[in-house]
Amino acid sequence: MAAGSTDTLWGGRPARTAREQAEAEGLPRHRGDVWEIPFSAEDLFELRQLVTAWASKEALATEPTEELVLAVHEIATNSVRHGGGVGMLRLWRTGDELVCEVQDAGYIRDTLYARRRPGRLASASRGLWITEQICDLVEIFSSPRGSQVRMHKRLD
């Protein structure tokens, strides 16, 4: 192979492309303390209580706490309905924001879907859009291996 080739070998195998690497890893992991909570359908009520208590403890104001709880509930419910029936909630705080991430085995084929308003007659499929409207930042990663939805709320 020519020097500087992008097809360099690693361990006898061709190196992964940037896309393959991203699909294997998903969103970058937070390096600090992370609270991980596995959940299923019967845990959704308790999950809402847990996020409420955590956000309040971290000094998030009442209205933003309610918005964050709603966002987590919507995404966790999607995990139960479309992501294999179970998921993992991760919670952490950065300097000036709270971050909640829901990971599951589902595959969101169109990750820009959250940015499109549902039609007037849509009775479902609003969770991602609602989350996008009430969080300061929503990051979505999805591949056939599973999905992550990361919700950010500033501590203003």
Describe the overall structure.
It is built from four helices and seven strands, in the order ββαβααββαββ. It is an alpha+beta fold and 156 residues long. Strands 3-4-5-7-6 form a five-stranded antiparallel sheet, with helices on one face. A two-stranded antiparallel ribbon has the order 1-2. A hairpin with a 2-residue loop joins strand 6 and strand 7 (146-154). Helix 2 packs antiparallel against helix 3 and helix 3 (62-82) runs antiparallel to helix 4. The radius of gyration is 18 Å and the shape is globular. The relative contact order is 0.18.
Furnish the topology, listing elements before pairings.
Elements: E1 9-10, E2 13-14, H1 18-25, E3 35-40, H2 44-57, H3 62-82, E4 86-93, E5 97-104, H4 127-134, E6 137-143, E7 146-154
Percent of residues in beta strands?
A: 25-35%
- What name goes with the CATH superfamily? Histidine kinase-like ATPase, C-terminal domain
The radius of gyration computed from the alpha-carbon positions, rounded to a whole number of angstroms, is 18 Å
CATH architecture call: 2-Layer Sandwich
Task: Assign the CATH class.
Answer: Alpha Beta
Taken together, the total number of domains comes to 1
Helical segment count: 4
How much helicity do the residues have?
A: 25-40%
| N to C succession of SSEs | EEHEHHEEHEE
For the sheet with most strands, the description reads: 5 strands, antiparallel
CA-CA gap between termini:
54 Å
Overall pLDDT metric? 85
Task: From the 3D structure, determine the CATH topology.
Answer: Heat Shock Protein 90
